[in-house]
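pinned: reference chain
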Amino acid sequence: MTVPPHILVVDDHAEIRHSVTRYLEKNGMQATAAGNANDMDDQLGRASIDLIVLDIMMPGEDGLSACARLRREKCTIPILMLTALGEDNERITGLDTGADDYLAKPFNPRELLARINAILRRASSATSLHGGALAGKRVNFAGVTFDHDTSQVIREDGATITLTTAEARLLSVFLERPRAVISRDELLELSAGRVAGPLDRTIDNQVSRLRRKIEPDVLRPRIISTVRNGGYCLNCDVEFEA
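pinned: its structure tokens
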């Protein structure tokens, strides 16, 4: 018998917590509610959680801070952030701190369920495919070394920089497909497990931040190149260390 995924819903609004958990349970999932970051920590210590739905605007420790802290503590549980409608800066910051996806309030419960299922599929695929290919490996490319397990890159100038979860996943997609042109939509689906919305610039923003961490000259990028009307390409060969 298949064990249903366990979703932790963290929101300070009781009505939202209860309605979301009931909806998820009606759709075959196990759901637990938490009213703040402290309650979230308690639940994480008690049960095995497969995904966290985390609201940004909460009293005490907010969602952005809680997400960043979990990632610093090496928590790999996927996180779906709930943001206020139109708060683009919060969405970008959420992805920077390690969130897997975001959804603006007010939201359609069906879209929330679809986003959760997409993240869970991506997480499962990453474990069996991406993790299997890169887990425990160090990869050399264009004078840069990427350590998959620590999410760190060592640049040509000797600087060691830790990537965010989103940046590490994006770089992993490039490293598994060197010299291949990958569209923005495909990059978003492979790295985040979701479909791009209208005017979605998530991938462009993430590529820009990744370039700042690995490129010798950000103004003239040579490692990750932009392909007009195509997407992006890791413009170098890749060598796995033994």
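why pinned: The helical segments are 14-26, 37-46, 63-72, 88-96, 109-134, 165-175, 184-192, 202-214. The chain has eight helices and 13 strands.
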